[in-house]
Description:
The complex is a heterotetramer. By secondary structure, chain A is α+β, with helices and mostly antiparallel strands. Chain A has helices at residues 3-8, 32-41, 95-106, 143-148, 169-172, 217-225, 240-244, 282-291, 294-302, 331-340, 370-384, 397-405, 425-429, 448-459, 463-480; strands at residues 12-17, 46-47, 61-62, 65-70, 76-81, 121-127, 131-136, 180-186, 190-195, 208-213, 231-232, 249-253, 258-264, 306-308, 344-345, 352-354, 357-358, 360-366, 389-395, 411-417, 483-489, 492-496, 499-500, 517-518. Classes of the chains: A alpha+beta, B alpha/beta, C mainly alpha, D mainly alpha. Residues 48-49, 99, 181, 430-431 of chain B line the site of one magnesium ion.
Amino acid sequence: AGDASRNSAGGTVVVATAADADAMLPPLVRTTQGRFASELLFDPLVEIGASLNTVGDTDFQPRLAERWTWSADSLAITFELNAKAKWHDGRPVTATDVEAGYLALMDSVNGAAARANLSGVESVTADGDRRVIIRYSARAPEQFYAASVIFPLPAHLLPSDGGPLTTSALARNPIGSGPFRFVAWEPLERLELAAVEDYYRGRAPLDRVIVTVSPEPATAQAKVWAEEADVIEIVPSGDIPEALSHPHVRLVTGNGFDYAYMGFNLRDSRNRERPHPLFANLALRRAIAQAVDREQVVRAIFDTLAYLANAPVVHRQFTYDSTIRAVPLDRARAAAVLDSLGWRVDARDGVRRRNGQRLTFTALIPGSSRNRERAAVLIQEQLRSVGVAMEIERTENRTFTQMRQDGKFDVVFGGWLTVPSPGTVRGTWGSSTREGWGNLNDGRWENPAFDSAVQAGVNAMDRNQARANFSRAYQVIADDVPALFLYELRPVAAVHKRFVIPAWRADGWWRSLHEWSIDPAQRLPRDARPAN
Amino acid sequence: MNALSALAIRNLSVRSTREAEHHIIDDVSFTLAAGSSVGLVGRSGAGKSSIGNAVLGLLPRGLALDPASRITLGSDELTALDAESLRRIRGRRLAMVFQEPLTALDPSMCIGQQLTAALEAHEVARGHEADERADAMLATVGLRDTRRISRRFAHQLSGGQRQRVLLALALLLRPEVIIADEPTTALDATLQAQILDMMDALRSEMGTSLLLISHDLEVVGERCERVLVLEHGKLVDDGPAERIIASRLSRGSGSAAVARARAVRPSDESLSDPSVPLVSTRALSVHYRIAARLFERAAFTVHAVEQVDVRIARGECLGIVGESGSGKSTLARALLGLENPTSGSVTVLGRTLNVNDHVMMRALRRRLQLVPQDAGASLTPERSVRWLLAEALEVHAHARGAAALKRVESLLAEVGLEAALADRLPAELSSGQRQRVAIARALAAQPDLLVCDEPVSNLDAAARESLLSMLDALRHDRGLAMLLISHDLGVVRRLATHVAVMYLGRVVEQGLARDVLDDPRMPYTQLLRASVPTGRPRTPAVVSEERDVPRAAPAHGCSFYPRCAFPLKDEGCLSEHPVLRPVTLDPNGHTVACLKVPLPPSL
Amino acid sequence: MLRVLTTRLFQAAIVVWLVVTASFVLIRLAPGDPFFSSLEQAGVGSEDASAMRQRFGYERPISEQYLRYLGGLAQGDFGWSHSRARPVREVIAALLPNTLLLAGTGLSLGLVFGVLIGTWQGWHAESRWSRYSDRLMLGLASVPEFILALLLAMVFALELRVLPVSGMHSEGVGGLADLLQHLVLPAGTLCLGVTALLARHQRSATRHVRDAEFIRAARASGISEGRIVWRHALRNSIAPVLTVLGSLLGTVASGTLLIERIYDWPGMGRAMLEAVGQRDYPLVSGAVLVTSLVVVAATLISDLLVAWANPRLRRSL
Amino acid sequence: MTGRKLGTPALVLGGLGLAALLAPLIAPHDPVAHLDPVLRALQAPSSAHWFGTDPYSRDVFSRLLFGARASLGIATLAVAVALTLGVVVGAAAALRGGFVDALLMRFTDAALGMPRLLLLLLVVASTGPLPAALLAAVIGGTGWMTTARLVRQETRRLLATEHVRAAAALGVPRIRLWRGHILPGLLPTLAVAATLLFASVLPVEAALSFLGLGVRAPDASWGNIILEAEGRVLRAWWLVLFPTIAIVAATLSANLLAERVGARYQRDDA
Ligand SMILES: Nc1ncnc2c1ncn2[C@@H]1O[C@H](COP(=O)(O)OP(=O)(O)OP(=O)(O)O)[C@@H](O)[C@H]1O
Ligand SMILES: Nc1ncnc2c1ncn2[C@@H]1O[C@H](COP(=O)(O)OP(=O)(O)OP(=O)(O)O)[C@@H](O)[C@H]1O
Ligand SMILES: [Mg+2]
Ligand SMILES: [Mg+2]
């Protein structure tokens, strides 16, 4: 290859994060940081397109699979592998590797998140070296989307004794098929990747990708401000002015997949069989919703860097519907309803009482989320003005999750990271009485109308039909107030100016990293090509 | 002023910074001619030590020099010098022997280093040479085995040894002026004579001048040409030694002569009931293992007390005499259960002492009281005199609260101290005052046995006499048993009913006081008696006993052999180890550990 | 002394065992386990974790886990760190030197400065500068450590740009000079706190010794003021500092936590913090084992030093 | 020296205490009221808000006043707990010696070796959020070790001195001996230890609220005011500076007061 192209190529990108990847192998990955690493190291068969469509195969991009053909009954898809695709150790990617990748995802020991997407897949079988056939048990709108979660693994490097993947040599020294290869990993400290010279889709212009982990968010940011790092994925709104004061920093606003909510527990926190003494009552839930100025909460915390959420859906999901109406702010109504429920303001402390009992409950918040703490304190103050005493109980993360799973709360300030497929609400808000539903529905809200609307949406083969069904579900949940939906993040990233970035993907900004390049005029010392 | 004066002091005044009107020293002026020796005497608390401190510019916190004071050393005006010049003078040209040896030595630096530090500070010698000189100096002040001694820490020495280290420090650089504050209180007469002789020699050879602060009029009379008398911080007399000493010695009250005269009074033995001893020891030994460095195995062992049998009955007073370092204090402490015996046992009131049995020790503590040798250091520095005495009363439930506080004043009066001192902290007292507070404290417990380790070493004759009579009265009237340690044989003779003589940890002669002290059989005891000062100028011709010859006990036989001047001494002394043998027919009588002393005919 | 020492070593073993046992139990009492995910991500179930639990034996009774852990320890096996995906021994081997470097530098500088400043302050206790600087020290000691750390980082690394913000090495640069540059801020922060702490103790002790008679006696023999201070006064006043240092060294082994976190120093404190957060049982126990070893060694050394300084305490520690 | 007045430090500490007590009267704003979280949040000091506002638009000056109650209260209590524990353990070890000494000091070593964080985490896990008094006890209960070691060391040193040995020989019982003859010598060291404890406790309180152990929202403490700055020590300097000044002023004046009272005590012991 010409020296000239080499010259304009090169460079190092240093990514500052507050948390490290949990693993490098796709079946083991659960965190965003893990996805970052594993998706740079490993390519999937096909990749979801920029439109984030999940129905049918529209806009899906070929990766390791060059092309695919549907069977007549649509119950099987044959994928043709790219002949140039190679593992980083030089071996070609074969159909067996796809099988291995699928099996690893399905192995319950690995606990892969993507297993849920693959429930409709009957089998993945090699047909010669270059061909793989995926068979489905039934037709489904997101049939093809399921194929996009399969990451082939190098079968020749998997533990031969069938031992666990987690502790295998491959997990510590992953050999992938993606645009970057693994160089070194100091868990919780630093990760280094390097460009693959003979990548089948063309060598990435960058030489190295380095991730440095700073558990203290302020430090992670400071690194970017001091030019020690180039990218930080999320800059809190409070730090935007700081970011703007550094001329070498460029801010990129993207879309996220997180939303946060204040969820009510519909069951008694001490005895899950009994209804919650307060929140089983819809009128009370609505009264509280009427008392909360969510608009103010979102503006106070994020200014314009978050959307007000009205339902468990984010803008980038294709089912997003801006017409969903949440319970409107109306403190006078709220007060009247509370009065009518027998909760009267007591002059002693301004808190409502009924039969001598104060209108008070505790809100569980995780220790790590400043945003949710903010929201909790703001809402606490708002509720105080209508005579409702909300106590805030802040706990360390794992304790939070445990308490939340055990239903030991009155109100929880929760948040979910969703995926492009809108069907995930089955787990988070669906009735837990339904098979495979509601496993994350910690407040135990149950509404058959919601369930059936979601089911219809998931089964709809047509996007518009799906949208209509989901909108129905969203309006049901907004009216029944199992939670006050608060905000959907619009993450702002900070990137060093010297990078030329083709696109910023909402479902993973790193997905375009192999196309990033550096303006040669603005190189930093660390962009020099490593001696070796 | 004398043109030749080595030290001239004019209008020296010292005030307490707390009570500005309280003059400790009030306008004192005197000069010290080169090569002269001047005695500074006065009652305890008169301000003698303060003069010494003021001259060195080292007044303790709480005392301040009046700005009008002038102190001239040779041609240098000390009050006008900067710190560095003053430092060069101190130790080199002007040295002081501090009154209380224990506190004047750095507790965490071995004494050899403290000596070499002084040499190095004045760039006289360093390294190996400094070590040599330090060792030599320690030997000169009568310390044996200096290599080992110099690696010890202050707390591992006996009172007299510490005092000699201080002397060594002062004499080390052969200064022009030495201020010696009670330099020989912890030394036996022979050593005392030897040290004073050495200073005399320095005077005549080097022209050193000596300001000798002492209560001991005999010593002052013997060694000084001129005497200054201080009273309440004022100089009240200044004249030739003969006149002043003679007049003071002959004066009625507070005269040592009286003590001497009365001391001849035979001790009253009527009260003693030897069949029931209050305390007794059996083959008591205390050994100290000494390691100089942190991880050293014990480098050597000091046999401080070796196979000692003594007994004290109610109403008796056992006097212990012996050279410095012979184990007297150790024996006393072991007797009180303050020291773990290496072997042997102590029996108190029929019960064998067990140091680790706290219940037993607590019960016995009140009945056994100690006035330690370093009485000054035994007072808690943060506590006032009143507090300390009241506590002693309260602990033993003799009085509490207001009653205790009132009793304090009568206790103070008993030991001859003014009630006004009650609210002072120990550091604000003179050494003699502190010593008496320590005695008062021990008496407050109303013990059965009182152990007094050099109880009057820092007291003037009058205070000493009144104290001794009080103790004697207590013994007499209340049957108080006493163990008295003193270098002053006069004091021992005055108070003791029985006497034990110690040498290198062993008792070498024992018996009734009058037998042992008036008719000593052991050559060692005779030696102790020989050099008692007389109060008259001494002819330096009297050659003191050579201590530089090895004093260590020979491996076999009599340990005193090398120094023995007994005409009958022969090779046989080296073959057999002498044990105490009676020299009279009385079975409880006079015993001596000498092979050559003739036995009573019937045995 | 040697006997005392062997007894102490024996006792040390008991202490370490005690601490390890306590940590073993305590961390298991906290909610969650290494395979319990606290992710708020739709679709991540928890049923798969049980296979991993089984594999690592976390479903057995705690007594059995404990015996197995001790058995492993006896063979030098510290277990597998889940959060760092490698044997605990490797994690500790990689991180402990970093912590020791940081703590060692910070503490020894703090010791030197603290003793120097404190001695000077105590010796001149009446002087105005002594009083002012004492207040400064106290002020410094009461400023929360993380504020100090953040402030120094902001000022020196962001505003003045003279020092790196964090980590141990710059990307693409290496070598001693780079390491030292990175060491300045964290060690400096630690040093400031330690200096303030020790200076206050040293000042008080020096002030007390200053009036001792033996100091006057040393002056009387013409020893220079400097020697009096550094030979006589120091040795007789250093014990509190040595004692505090003993416990400091111990706590610093796990306690530069905030500093390591803010400056991104890859050390034990940071790892322990994360291990606790992620319920990485073996790493927590391993780290506690190491810190308790350091504590035991540190207190022993400090006791020895105290005995060295004060010969009267030598018979025992 | 003795005539030294209690002057300024007493005034400052008294002032802080008084401010804490009278906070409801002095404070210009309700310390928990959000004035306007969108428009008046995070304002730098001005004549309307002397010490600025926090991210919730609460008045920092008012919060500082109210926070003094929690912070000073917790700090004082925590120091009392730590000191008591430290003194009892240290003195008992030194006085009893032998086996008891070994036992107590090795226990202290163990407590030192056990990271505070781990212990606190357990507390959170087993009890959940704590009332302020218990919180103080927990902070004190995990911070006594250095004091214990100091007290033991100093007690041992003093036990070897002539005056303490003399007092023991006099028959003074052990506890009394410690109080009457050892404590006075120990007091300067203890005073230093106590003020340093005091200084260290206030930040601990702040750090603990991370774990859910601190003062609960929305109540103010000096520590959680600082935390609201979220590490922006320069940009939101007023959230850091004023509480820090309060902490430093409290420690300084507590220390000076202790010193002066100590100086008096040394004279008025009779
Ligand atoms: N703590 C100790 N450690 C080691 N050796 C000691 C210790 N105390 C005393 N010695 C040694 O034991 C011997 C006896 O000491 P002791 O104090 O009993 O003598 P003493 O007869 O009282 O002498 P003095 O008249 O000088 O006071 C001395 O040689 C002394 O050096
Ligand atoms: N800091 C002080 N404050 C007040 N008075 C003091 C202070 N120091 C000493 N004194 C008093 O000063 C007087 C002189 O003390 P000094 O030590 O000079 O006496 P002395 O003549 O050496 O007595 P002794 O023969 O007992 O040693 C004593 O009455 C003592 O109580
Ligand atoms: Mg005197
Ligand atoms: Mg003696």
